[in-house]
Amino acid sequence: MRNVTDRTSNPFGIRPPFDRADPNDRTAVFGYGDANADFHVIGDYPGIHGGESTGVPFTETDSGTAIQSVLRDVGFASGPRDHPSLENCFASYVHMCSLPDGETPTANDYADLERFFDAELRAINAHILLPVGEHATDHVLREYTTQRHRFSLDMTRLHATDIRGRGFLVVPIKEPTTWDNGDREAILSRLLGLLASDYRQTKGVATTVG
Fold it and tell me: The Uracil-DNA glycosylase-like domain covers which part of the protein (predicted)?
């Protein structure tokens, strides 16, 4: 069994290149959870998926707490809502830095942080990537599969489906604030199905197919 590190927050000591956070917010919401995890949940940025006050991904906001609720039902998350304990699951953002209220990351902002996200993703080396929302899904499909050209970015159709990547299985998650009847149950069922399967074989298969 690999043991990357026992640190829960920012396990690899990443230092983002800029600080534009509001005075009471964290400079960045670093990757958090089990650094030896098989499942990696990937959000967009703190303003959408939360953590600007707690420093923990998928807290505070409606979207973030909806994702955390699914992780709890699967058995990945337990303990306090603002600082959960994650087992076999790691959570991080494509754009980890906090921005002033009302601002969204620009293309240059995403580009500035891409190498940090990529380094952490490859260090975690999970089997299953779970991008949340359109931007995270687009980024993961472009960078970690050879199949982005095959799909329109229709999150309703991609939600809770399996896409083979380059060494990963990608399971996109529709933005929780747009979930309709059945969307929560669909991703919960897919995760439970993966956990009941021999999902660790996806690495070899994905490398061959992707």
Answer: 30-173
